[in-house]
Design a protein that fits this description.
The complex is a heterodimer. By secondary structure, chain A is of the alpha/beta class. Chain A is built from 14 helices and eight strands. The chains are: A alpha/beta, B alpha/beta.
Chain lengths: 365, 293
């Protein structure tokens, strides 16, 4: 079947959207064509509005969506801009004024010394990690904290179930034989993972993202953000099942790898976007950071106290705690440690997995 | 897909925007277009945006333009069919059985059926429009259940059979986007993201909503609110707060509080969080007056 020529760009547009990972179902393409007819269209603006209304791109992807639109309908080839910031981010938080912190030279062992034996060790290490993550994914759905949901199911609870009781009664000619009941369902708590990706955390960020991917795949309601000089939501990227693709996509979104830490500011921005703050409400919040905060601890402790109030529990996992002698030394970490439910070991994906699996509320250390 | 070009004489986004303005709601062109398309294509309208940008108000205005009653279904976790669609009136059914004795009684007649918002909208699509408010507060179970309703506008009641709407009812769904709605639901809807209005529009809204506020006050309040929204606050002020702040400051001023002080004194109607108040307190004058901090 051949398509009428004027319709070609519409179909091409839907196809281009699908290629770019947008939701573009046939019924939406159909609605787009119908909408165009309804609006006249008198101008290209009408066409663009019809596209927005029918395909409904998320606000943070408007720029990218418009670029695709221009490419198809104006024949203008533009490189799609990187996905923008979430919609209503306060403008106080941009990377413009920030100077990157220089990494100390001795952090990266380099050159001739990297022997074959070391490489062997590295590989074994990776295998260990992969096995640990598999085991983690298997056990985590059971281990994550649960809460009583508002939804009820039939069972031996306190609430009466009038509908079923009535039906039961009807079968017995109107005699109330027994009162059937409903109980509240159990549901997994939300989990919010905040990953510090500043320079001082450099060695661990990739492992942390691999763990985050396993957690997103295995858990029900998991949200993951990275905080460096910017705040980036990577949940959607990590929800792809294929790990390599997911991690690649996530690192493409994050523009501030290995920069400096502005964790306090990052957390404040996180809390000031209402829809992000609601991810933390009643959630198990896990912060992966060494707490090496530039500047005073004031902003960080302010943000943490707010987070502590809305979250169910807060875990702070720092790579420095791999050392058994570890005590919170930095001013920032000392200031916030009373607000934490647990200050634990975040030195490797295995350690983080262990902390998550064995966390029990109330066991403060 | 049935398409109606004109709904009650409204035949395009501009006429709809004018009617909405008559109903005391100022819609930008994007919203007017989306709303018109939703009505014309007979699809639900999905409005997303931050709290306080006027999503529910938009639904009320659309209802008033169409001259229909707005039936509001407020979502919450665990909302189910008996709260959203219909419920049998069990006590009455029971009484009926007792009274009937050995006579036949139809326990599933209309008089025992309690219609909830979704069924109401379905039974009388020409008289009512359905607002499903804050859908993101409900859980996945309800969303799946809603999907069935939105795809063919019918409800099946086991005791009665399927009830189908004579014409698709107007349905408006709002969400604060605290979670992503399911894609199957999004693709059935016409979508619009409502952002904070630009300053000129917001000033216009303030003056329309409150007749006591002077033009100059409105512009200054809107500028100050814009600066507040740029700060990392726990509860950024919405449009309703802007209107209230302008009104409160005007009232204080009439009672003799001089201008810049009146804004600062009325700050409690715009920032409703102790931490936020403490955070802006040192710079409050600069934020209100717009001097560089």
């Amino acid at each position: 079947m051949t398509l009428p020529r004027p319709l070609a760009p519409f179909v091409n547009f839907a196809q281009a959207l699908r290629m770019a990972g947008y939701l573009a179902a046939p019924e939406q393409a159909q609605a787009f064509i119908a909408a165009t007819g309804l609006l006249g269209p008198n101008s290209l603006l009408d066409l663009r509005r019809a596209a927005h209304a029918t395909f409904g791109p998320a606000p943070e992807r408007h720029a990218e969506f418009d670029a695709l639109f221009d490419e198809i309908f104006l024949g203008r080839v533009l490189t799609a801009p990187a996905p923008g910031e979430p919609e209503d981010m306060p403008n106080a938080f941009d990377a413009g004024t920030f100077e990157p912190m220089l990494a100390a030279d001795d952090e990266q062992p380099s050159g001739a010394d990297a022997s074959v034996a070391e490489r062997g060790f590295a590989r074994r290490f990776v295998d260990d990690e992969a096995a640990a993550l598999r085991a983690f994914a298997k056990r985590v759905p059971e281990a994550l904290p649960r809460r009583r949901a508002r939804r009820t199911v039939r069972g031996k609870g306190r609430m009466a179930d009038p509908r079923r009781t009535f039906r039961h009664m009807m079968r017995r000619d109107g005699e109330v034989a027994r009162l059937l009941r409903r109980m509240r369902k159990q549901r997994q708590r939300r989990v919010l993972l905040l990953i510090d990706i500043s320079g001082s955390m450099k060695g661990g960020t990739e492992g942390a993202l691999r763990l985050a991917h396993a957690l997103v795949q295995a858990g029900e309601q998991v949200e993951v953000f990275t905080i460096g000089t910017r705040l980036t939501r990577v949940t959607r990227a990590l929800s792809r099942r294929n790990r390599e693709q997911a991690l690649q996509h996530a690192s493409g979104l994050v523009a501030d790898w290995d920069g400096g830490t502005r964790l306090g500011e990052g957390l404040q921005v996180f809390l000031s976007v209402p829809r992000f703050a609601s991810f933390a409400r009643g959630a198990m919040v896990i912060v992966l950071s060494d707490g090496l905060e530039r500047g005073g601890p004031h902003m960080l402790s302010q943000a943490m106290s707010r987070l502590d109030k809305i979250a169910w529990s807060v875990l702070w996992l720092t790579p420095l705690a791999a050392d058994a002698q570890f005590q919170p030394k930095t001013e920032a970490l000392r200031a916030i440690s009373p607000m934490l439910d647990r200050l634990g070991n975040g030195s490797s994906p295995q350690a983080i997995a262990g902390e998550i699996l064995h966390f029990a509320k109330g066991a403060r250390r | 897909m049935p398409v109606r070009r004109s709904i009650l004489g409204i035949d395009g986004p501009q006429p709809l925007a004018r009617s909405l303005r008559d109903a005391q709601y100022i819609a930008d062109e994007g919203l007017a277009t989306a709303a018109y398309l939703a009505l014309a294509l007979g699809k639900p309208l999905l409005l997303e945006g931050s709290p306080g940008v006027g999503k529910t108000e938009a639904a009320k205005a659309i209802a008033s333009v169409l001259g229909r009653e707005l039936v509001r279904l407020q979502c919450y976790e665990g909302i189910d069919a008996s709260a959203a669609m219909y419920e049998w009136n069990f006590p009455r059914q029971m009484l009926a059985i007792r009274q009937a004795g050995s006579d036949y009684v139809n326990l599933y007649a209309d008089e025992y059926l309690v219609a909830r918002p979704m069924l109401l909208a379905l039974q009388t699509p020409r008289e009512r429009i359905l607002l499903i408010d804050e859908l993101d507060r409900s859980d996945h179970e309800f969303e799946a259940f809603l999907l069935e309703f939105l795809s063919d506008f019918s409800i099946s009641i086991p005791e009665r059979g399927t009830i189908r709407a004579s014409e698709p009812p107007v349905v408006i769904i709002t969400s604060n986007r605290t979670r992503e709605l399911h894609e199957a639901l999004r693709r059935r809807c016409v979508y619009h993201w409502i952002g904070y209005p630009d300053p000129a529009l917001e000033a216009e809204i303030v003056m329309m909503r409150s007749s006591v506020v002077a033009r100059d006050t409105a512009h200054r309040i809107v500028a100050a609110v814009g600066r507040l929204r740029g700060e990392p606050l726990a509860k950024p002020p919405g449009v309703a707060e802007t209107v209230e702040w302008a009104e409160a400051a005007t009232i204080l001023n009439e009672q003799g509080v001089p201008w810049p002080r009146a804004f600062a004194r009325a700050i409690g109607v715009v920032l409703k969080d102790q931490d936020d108040l403490a955070y802006v307190a040192p710079r409050i004058d600069a934020l209100i007056m717009g001097n560089a901090a």
